TrEMBL record:
<protein>
    <submittedName>
        <fullName>Short-subunit dehydrogenase</fullName>
    </submittedName>
</protein>
<dbReference type="GO" id="GO:0016020">
    <property type="term" value="C:membrane"/>
</dbReference>
<dbReference type="InterPro" id="IPR020904">
    <property type="entry name" value="Sc_DH/Rdtase_CS"/>
</dbReference>
<dbReference type="Pfam" id="PF00106">
    <property type="entry name" value="adh_short"/>
</dbReference>
<keyword id="KW-0560">Oxidoreductase</keyword>
<dbReference type="InterPro" id="IPR036291">
    <property type="entry name" value="NAD(P)-bd_dom_sf"/>
</dbReference>
<dbReference type="InterPro" id="IPR002347">
    <property type="entry name" value="SDR_fam"/>
</dbReference>
<dbReference type="GO" id="GO:0016491">
    <property type="term" value="F:oxidoreductase activity"/>
</dbReference>
<comment type="similarity">
    <text>Belongs to the short-chain dehydrogenases/reductases (SDR) family.</text>
</comment>
């Protein structure tokens, strides 16, 4: 269980689930490091965190582009210097996709993997030695139901999130005996800007809100479910309220049925 004095670093903290988690931690007075590319939005989130209860001098704004791997060592040392520790890293930065495979450029696939996979791995590897030296720490990643189930028009996104589930499951097995916890978060449809910011096949911004996102779980409710999972030490936290959450057990126990359902959805969307 996290204590109020633990330092939590959240990437993708400028909006969506990252912002909502920052506010939940702030209500506990937790020291926070907030990272994303948009410094102005991070400043907005910091102000909200201070309103929630964390002291202003206990919230650090640390702009970060996870794809800039050469900058990560210095950024990680800056993060550590804030309180002398990094007790939890929540890898929440990411982008989605809305395009058929046949219409998706390889450059777009590579962009998805640079942000959603290699950026998360590189930052985790840079922080891991600090946690090993501390002999404690908590690493988390925002994956997705799409990291368990294939969905149409999201081939690159599903591939990236499947990769993250595999990487962090394997990492958990490596570091559990070293006092480090690893959590994978599997959200379904949450009311965020994820589809607005998704990539079309040519790499441009999708710019629309999916109906299933619009009807999804409130992002604040999502964050509270995740926090309860953190407190309980749950290794994998599913969070959502819609039919997509049933896909997790259907895929596990009735895979052929899940493939048929996904195919019908894919046909309907074309």
């Amino acid at each position: 269980m996290m204590t109020n004095g633990d330092t939590v670093w959240i990437t993708g903290a400028s909006s969506g689930i990252g912002e909502a988690l920052a506010l939940e931690f702030a209500s506990r007075g937790t020291p926070l490091i907030l990272s994303a590319r948009r410094e102005d939005e991070l400043a907005r989130v910091k102000n909200l965190c201070v309103e929630r209860g964390t002291e202003a001098n206990a919230v650090m704004i640390l702009p970060l582009d996870v794809t800039n791997e050469t900058a990560l060592p210095d950024i990680v040392q800056t993060a550590k210097a804030f309180t002398g520790r990094i007790d939890m890293l929540i890898n929440n930065a990411g982008i989605s996709q809305r395009a058929l495979c046949i219409d998706t450029d390889m450059a777009t696939y590579r962009r998805l993997f640079e942000v959603d996979v290699f950026g998360q791995i590189a930052l985790t590897k840079a922080v891991l030695p600090i946690m090993l030296e501390q002999e404690s720490g908590h690493l988390a990643v925002t994956a997705s139901v799409a990291g368990k189930v294939g969905a149409p028009q999201r081939t690159g996104y599903c591939a990236a999130k499947h990769a993250m589930m595999g990487f962090f499951d394997a990492l958990r097995a490596e570091v559990a005996h070293r006092g480090i916890k690893v959590t994978t978060i599997t959200p379904g449809f949450i009311r965020t800007a994820i589809s607005q910011n998704a990539l079309k096949g040519d790499g441009s911004r999708f710019g629309q809100t999916d109906n299933n996102i619009a009807g999804g779980m409130d992002v604040g409710d999502c964050a509270r479910v995740i926090m309860r999972g953190f407190d309980k030490g749950t290794p994998e936290i599913p969070v959502g309220k819609g039919a997509e959450m049933h896909a997790l057990w259907i895929k596990r126990f009735f895979p052929r049925l899940m493939f048929k359902v996904a195919s019908r959805i894919g046909q309907a969307e074309q």
